[in-house]
Structure formats: C-alpha cells, structure tokens
Design a protein that fits this description.
Blueprint (H helix, E strand, L loop, with lengths): L2 H11 L4 H7 L4 H9 L6 H11 L3 H4 L21 E3 L5 E6 L3 E2 L2 E2 L4 H11 L8 H12 L7
C-alpha cells in the first residue's frame, strides 16, 4: 500500500475530514489533499505528528518499506504494538517494548539479556547453556545497542 492510501485510510478510519486532519498536524487542507492524491508526501516533522496522531509508527505510515528489528534483542518488529515508545508517546522504532520501556532500557548489560534468553527461549536442539550463551553473544554483538 502506498503512503497516499495509508494516510487516506487512517484519516477515514478515524472519522476525520481533510480539514480536521490538517488542523491537527498544522498544515493546510490542500496539503492533506495533495498527500492523498500522491502529488506530494509529508515531510519528516509532519510524519512524526501523523505518527502520534494516528498512533502508528512512521514505518507503517510509509508502507513498511523496511523490516524493523529490535536493536537490543533482535526480535522482528512486524507490528506497531511490538515497538517501544518514548515517554512522550512517540515510537522508538529501534527497540521492542520489552527491551525499552518508559524511556529506559530494561537490560542494563548484554549478560543480563543473555541470562533471560537462556532461561526463557526454546531449546529444540537441546544445546548446553554455554553453547547457547555463545550463540546469543555472537548474534547480539551485531546489534546496534551492543556494539
């Protein structure tokens, strides 16, 4: 789905006119109309306002052009309700809601996260804890938060 269709669907789903949406994100009705016809697209600051207004991630507004992955634990962030939020309510698309909550990281060290993963994730291959720790260490070390 294209951004023009996404914006129109969200506006209609929220029972807003173009004029009402324009007022809420500080643009003209004509700007909203141009977005919905595909003539133009909202700028970055307006995308942030739209994200907050509709309670969806910017990635969702843009038609999910990239696969988001938590940069702390590596979990795919395939749905907006998995994505963390800042204390002001804006989405933080780098982390899941379990690794980053209320503006703070849940796991203070990589070792604390690995301890959690070893004790809470399935082990279908029946690997020993040390081998599993080494696998998690190798994978997590590639993520932005732990580099």
């Amino acid at each position: 789905m294209e951004i023009k269709d996404i914006l129109k669907n969200l506006r209609e789903k929220n029972s807003l006119t173009q004029e009402q949406l324009a007022e809420r994100v500080c643009v003209t009705r004509q700007a909203v109309s141009r977005w919905e016809t595909g003539e133009t697209q909202p700028n970055t600051d307006t995308l942030k306002l739209l994200s907050r207004e509709f309670d969806v991630s910017i990635n969702t507004l843009l038609g999910s052009p990239r696969q988001l992955i938590c940069q702390c634990c590596g979990m795919p962030l395939s749905e907006d309700d998995l994505i963390s939020k800042e204390t002001d309510g804006s989405y933080n698309e780098d982390y899941c809601k379990w690794c980053y909550a209320d503006g703070k990281f849940v796991y203070q060290t990589k070792e604390a996260l690995i301890d959690f993963l070893v004790s809470h994730t399935p082990n279908p291959d029946h690997l020993g804890d040390e081998e599993r720790r080494a696998q998690f260490e190798s994978y997590l070390s590639q993520l932005k938060h732990w580099k």
